[in-house]
Amino acid sequence: MKKVFLSLAALALVFSVYSCRETTVKVDDTAETTTNDVEEAIENTGDAIEEAAEDTGDAIENAAEETEDAVEDATDGQ
Known about the structure:
The chain has one helix at residues 2-76.
């Protein structure tokens, strides 16, 4: 009876170790995928911020030019 009990305990230990290895591999794969997704999201966010900054700069330049033109037009009449 002792041998049967010890054999079952050893078998359970082998299965639990094997299961942990699979879980570790899955966790590593998930971590790598998550890291790649986060890096891509950061890159996309950076690109969006850069584009928004350029658009804002262009809008400011256009507004300044239009203001300058309006001031010139207003002062030409006087």
